Amino acid sequence: MLSPLLPALLVLALAGLLWYFVPIFSGIPWVPTQTARLERALDLAGLRPGETFYDLGCGDGRVLVAAARRGARAIGVEVSPIHCAAARIRATLSGVGGRVSIHWGNLYRHDLAGADVVFWYGHSRYTAKMQAHLARTLQEGARLVSINIDFPGWQPEAIDKPALIFLYRFPPPAGDVNSFLLREIASCPPPS
Description:
alpha/beta
């Protein structure tokens, strides 16, 4: 005779497999953002109450909750339905569910025209694809905050060097991280 727990265990096993493998098959494995690092990213972006914030590949929703707690309208785009459900539950249990929207779909096809701030913690393998999408869809003045990934040909507006977080304002000036660092060095007073 089968245990009455067997169906529940099978559902949990399937959910666990989907949790890890759907993001991997889509190209980017799920890697949660550490709380201190995501707070530094939101600080660097200067996220203000009332702004529209997008998290591309929102995972379990922790960045969305942090943005919503700062008064932003937080929108997540996620390819994994299990992660979408987890993000919705996290937002609801955190008391910010009314300021958070979760969209199940391809983050490279999502319209970002209304974004004030976009957050991306991606992989260098997909930088060119994301860069093309952002260049097409972000409006002038929008800010992009990226963890670990810089965008070739775009000069960041600011860099949090210890946390490796990059901030870009659209349209970003031509350049790169090196041109940003040279500008920063040039603005330093000479040693006495």
